[in-house]
UniProtKB/TrEMBL annotation:
Record-annotated Cyclic nucleotide-binding domain positions: 13-128
PANTHER family attached to this UniProt entry: CAMP-DEPENDENT PROTEIN KINASE REGULATORY CHAIN, CAMP-DEPENDENT PROTEIN KINASE TYPE I REGULATORY SUBUNIT-RELATED
GO cellular component: cAMP-dependent protein kinase complex; cytosol
UniProt-listed PROSITE patterns: CNMP_BINDING_2, CNMP_BINDING_3
The protein's name in its UniProt record: Cyclic nucleotide-binding domain-containing protein
Lineage of the species this protein comes from: Bacteria, Bacillati, Actinomycetota, Acidimicrobiia, Acidimicrobiales
Source domain of life: Bacteria
Entries under Pfam families matching the protein: cNMP_binding
Matching InterPro entries: cAMP-dep_PK_reg_su-like, cNMP-bd_CS, cNMP-bd_dom, cNMP-bd_dom_sf, RmlC-like_jellyroll
């Protein structure tokens, strides 16, 4: 379990969390294996979960344009954890993948139980959005 908590703590989203908070997060995470070509999320669909990539790679495409290729240690769909809004991009596995999945309902319940976690997640998500905006031609909405 300690190695698992270390992997969660290495993610920027959870980097500031205490060991107890990481244990709380670990309770709501499921593991999922997907094959190459599987669509993890489609642009415009309602967000129900976020994915943390343990192994493999995926392409992130918005309006037909490749934005990024993501891999181990990165995550996609984290905005759904906050607002369950529409997906801003389509993400498709480009290799077999092992993922950690965090559902919005479970995450929301966890934030109610561990209020300090909400601030940490919002700060790290805001930093990631700022970095993405600085590299983008137009603001992310």
């Amino acid at each position: 379990m300690d190695a698992y908590l270390e992997r969660l703590g290495a993610l920027s989203m959870f980097a500031e969390c205490s060991t107890k908070e990481l244990r709380d997060v670990a309770r709501i995470v499921d593991e999922l294996n997907v094959e190459e070509g599987r669509v993890l999320m489609s642009q415009g669909d309602a967000g129900q979960e976020a994915f943390v990539i343990e192994e493999g790679t995926a392409d992130v495409v918005r309006n037909g344009e490749l934005l990024a290729t993501v891999g181990p240690g990165q995550y996609v769909g984290e905005l759904a954890l906050i607002d369950a809004g529409p997906r801003s991009a389509t993400v498709t596995a480009t290799s077999p993948m092992r993922l950690l999945v965090i559902g919005t309902r479970e995450f929301s319940t966890l934030l109610d139980e561990v209020p300090g976690l909400a601030r940490r997640v919002l700060v790290s998500t805001t930093r990631r959005l700022r970095a993405a905006n600085e590299g983008a031609h137009q603001p992310i909405h």
